[in-house]
Amino acid sequence: MKHTYLFEEGKWIGTGVYSNEKGEIVQVEGQSIIIHKDEVWINDGSMKILTNTPVEFSNRYEITPFVYGSEMTNWKSFNPAIGELKGKFMIVQDSIMSNYVSADGQYTGFEYLKKIDDLIYENRGFAFKNDKKMSSWAVQLKKID
Question: Under CATH, which number does the domain 10-143 receive?
Fold first, then answer.
């Protein structure tokens, strides 16, 4: 299967729900901009939690480009709230899966992106701190550019 998210440059808009450590669910919106350079792919993303006082998180992934025919690659990022993260992307049929861990080992997480069509992906994920839930989310991503 040919994937478009990550594998093609463009801008994606996300909408859905976010659940905090207490299980409280709120609306969320965000965006992801994919840029390809020779040595690295960039995924520059943000997510805004739509509470009475909206909170925005940003994250910039630096992805080792997939080698032709490979199902897996590495990525790293720096999240201002939790520091350096390292992870892997794995292609499994219609899905792109990812897991990560922070440099200090306190933060871990997992997410997957299921391809609906070339312009839409369903994203699900969760984040832990010291084996306790920090957040989870369910978002639909639509390519707009």
Answer: 2.40.128.20
